[in-house]
């Protein structure tokens, strides 16, 4: 046997935990010691790297000692692979034949799976509740009231099934059409409950009294009833058959009035604080009076419309006025369709972040 | 090659063990499986050469892998299910403990290990990797699932001192 073969065999036996069987000369013995020392150094480096998580470390030696280290590395690499699979949502992964670790890992994955099932079940329950709440809200809020002296169109895009936006309309005996557009803080069920509560109150409050008085009553009701931090903004218009209008704005975006003859768009800003925020705000709300001529239009909308993004910019009042100017000669139905198209275009490229409601009213005068 | 073959493999050739072995059942000792492998390898090497014996073993493994997939693995819906079924069945049938270390699904490259391997674990240490049949077997499984050919090479083996056999699987 050549010296090299004797040396390799002796080295392999040593690093496999066996005594060398061949006869080694003094020179070969020294070579063997050097080889073993080098192996020890490489082995130590490999173990340090593996223990530091560098599981790709290559260790090209054979023999049982090297094999034991590679066995450890193989198990760690497999666990890393399995953990990654769990991280990617595969909760059926199991570790086998690794003693206590297998039991702990498998228990952890089982718990994760159980928690996921619980969350999914809760989510389904919540979705069912939201769908029911949406139905209830729709039923409670009812339809838009029709009269012969105004044409009314509604655009309603709740962010979720239930909405913090709502519109309530009614007609009183003395030929008066009233509309309230409100926006409760938040978007979910809590906001929807505020809308339902306010609507129920408006059924009796709205037909009577001046707009500022209605706002004060709603403020008082909400301040007494809703938790701190929840509130409502709203706008209210009352239109008589002769074109006389009374309006009030409680911390809501402006009311826009578009004149048919000149195309001029007038703005009516909010004068009061949000409804329900403070208990006694007697002077906070005021009623504004104006007169409509035939084909004049009133636009009430929630802040969702202002915050809608067109390209990278918010629509804002200027954007809405721009749309209305372009639609001056169009019918009310066509104008609302144009606004709807803008909303659709925006929602195709941007995330709509709020409920979005538009109530468009055109005064058509008393039918002869 | 003879056209009229006597030994062309089909799953049916494994026979009806319930009927044929009502008392002894379908289990036997690993030593007997290895006895057949080792003696067959010996005779093949004597009749041909080491390389040809390995080639025949690889090819037989490939055939076995395909038959195993088609008859026992069902139709896994995705890679995750394929791997899980393979692991479970390998443990159930005591073929070995299969563990995946890497799975590059885009490139379809894999590294897997087989511990307590039916073919080699516990064999004396040699200076070469022995699991050629396993290489073919894994290639057959992969080919059936992915619908393309794979090359499988054993890079660590019990017979070269390692405690687990490691295979690199690459598409051809």
Short recap of the structure:
The complex is a heterodimer of chains A (368) and B (172). Chain A is α+β, with helices and mostly antiparallel strands and 368 residues long.
Question: Your description of this structure?
Answer:
The complex is a heterodimer of chains A (368) and B (172). Chain A has 368 residues and is an alpha+beta fold. Chain A folds into two domains: 3-87, no CATH class; 142-363, Phosphatase 2c, domain 1. Chain A has helices spanning 3-15, 26-51, 64-87, 99-141, 189-205, 211-225, 303-306, 316-326, 332-349, and strands spanning 150-157, 165-172, 176-184, 232-240, 244-250, 255-258, 265-268, 288-291, 297-301, 309-310, 313-314, 356-363. In chain A, strand 10 and strand 11 (313-314) form a beta hairpin. In chain A, helix 4 (99-141) packs parallel to helix 5 and helix 5 (189-205) crosses helix 6. Chain A starts with a helix and ends in a 5-residue tail after the last strand. The mean pLDDT of chain A is 88. Chain B starts with 16 loop residues before the first helix and ends with a strand. Chain B has helices at 17-20, 30-47, 50-72, 79-92, 132-146; strands spanning 97-104, 109-115, 150-156, 165-171. Chain B has 172 residues and is α+β, with helices and mostly antiparallel strands. A four-stranded antiparallel β-sheet of chain B has the order 1-2-4-3, covered by helices on one side. Chains A and B meet through helix 3 of A and helix 4, strand 1 and strand 2 of B.
Topology (elements, then pairings):
The complex is a heterodimer of chains A (368) and B (172).
Chain A lengths: L2 H13 L10 H26 L12 H24 L11 H43 L8 E8 L7 E8 L3 E9 L4 H17 L5 H15 L6 E9 L3 E7 L4 E4 L6 E4 L19 E4 L5 E5 L1 H4 L2 E2 L2 E2 L1 H11 L5 H18 L6 E8 L5
Antiparallel strand pairs in A: 1-12, 2-3, 3-4, 4-5, 5-8, 6-7, 6-9, 9-12, 10-11
Helix pairs in contact in A: 1-2, 4-5, 5-6
Chain B lengths: L16 H4 L9 H18 L2 H23 L6 H14 L4 E8 L4 E7 L16 H15 L3 E7 L8 E7 L1
Antiparallel strand pairs in B: 1-2, 2-4, 3-4
Helix pairs in contact in B: 2-3, 3-5
């Amino acid at each position: 046997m050549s010296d090299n073969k004797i040396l390799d065999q002796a080295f392999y036996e040593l690093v496999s935990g066996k005594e060398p069987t061949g006869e080694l000369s003094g020179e070969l013995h020294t070579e063997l010691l050097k080889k073993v020392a080098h192996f020890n150094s490489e082995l130590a480096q490999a173990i340090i790297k593996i223990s530091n998580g560098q599981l790709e470390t290559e260790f090209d030696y054979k023999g049982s000692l090297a094999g034991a280290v590679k066995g450890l590395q193989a198990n760690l690499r497999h666990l890393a692979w399995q953990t990654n699979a769990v991280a990617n949502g595969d909760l059926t992964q199991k570790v086998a034949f690794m003693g206590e670790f297998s039991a702990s890992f498998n228990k952890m994955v089982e718990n994760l799976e159980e928690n996921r099932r619980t969350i999914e079940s809760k989510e389904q329950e919540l979705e069912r509740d939201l769908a029911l709440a949406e139905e209830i809200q729709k039923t409670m809020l009812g339809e838009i009231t029709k009269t012969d002296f105004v044409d009314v169109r509604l655009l309603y895009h709740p962010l979720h099934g239930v909405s913090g936006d709502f519109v309530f309309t009614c007609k009183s005996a003395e030929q008066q059409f009233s509309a309230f557009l409100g926006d409760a803080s938040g978007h979910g069920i809590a906001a929807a409950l505020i809308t339902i509560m306010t609507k129920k109150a408006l059924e009796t409050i709205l037909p009577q009294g001046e707009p500022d008085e209605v706002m004060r009553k709603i403020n008082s009701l909400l301040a007494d009833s809703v938790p701190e931090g929840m509130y409502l903004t709203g706008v209210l218009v009352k239109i008589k058959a002769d074109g006389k209008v009374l309006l009030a704005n409680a911390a809501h975006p402006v009311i826009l009035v578009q004149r048919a003859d000149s195309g001029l768009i007038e703005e009516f800003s909010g004068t009061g604080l949000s409804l329900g925020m403070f208990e006694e705000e007697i002077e906070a709300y005021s009623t504004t009076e104006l007169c409509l001529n035939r084909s004049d239009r009133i636009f009430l909308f929630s802040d969702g419309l202002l915050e809608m993004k067109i390209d990278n910019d918010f629509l804002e009042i200027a954007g809405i006025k721009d749309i209305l100017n372009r639609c001056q000669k169009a019918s009310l139905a066509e104008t609302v369709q144009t606004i709807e198209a803008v909303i659709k275009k925006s929602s195709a490229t941007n995330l709509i972040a709020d409920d979005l409601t538009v109530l468009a009213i055109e005064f058509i005068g008393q039918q002869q | 090659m003879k056209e009229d073959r006597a030994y062309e493999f089909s799953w049916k050739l494994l026979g009806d063990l319930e009927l044929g072995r009502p008392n002894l059942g379908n289990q036997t000792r690993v030593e007997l499986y290895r006895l057949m492998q080792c003696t067959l390898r010996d005779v093949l090497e004597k009749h041909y050469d080491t390389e040809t014996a390995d080639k025949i073993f690889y090819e037989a493994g490939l055939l076995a892998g395909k038959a195993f997939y088609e008859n026992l693995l069902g139709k896994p819906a995705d890679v995750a299910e394929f791997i899980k079924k393979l692991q479970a069945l390998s443990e159930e049938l005591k073929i070995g403990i299969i563990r995946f270390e890497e799975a590059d699904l885009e490139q379809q490259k894999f590294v897997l290990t087989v511990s307590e391997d039916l073919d080699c674990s516990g064999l004396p240490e040699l200076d070469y990797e022995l699991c050629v049949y396993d290489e073919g077997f894994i290639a057959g499984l992969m080919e059936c699932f992915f619908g393309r050919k794979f090359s499988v090479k054993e890079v660590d083996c019990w017979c070269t001192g390692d405690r687990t056999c490691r295979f690199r699987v690459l598409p051809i």
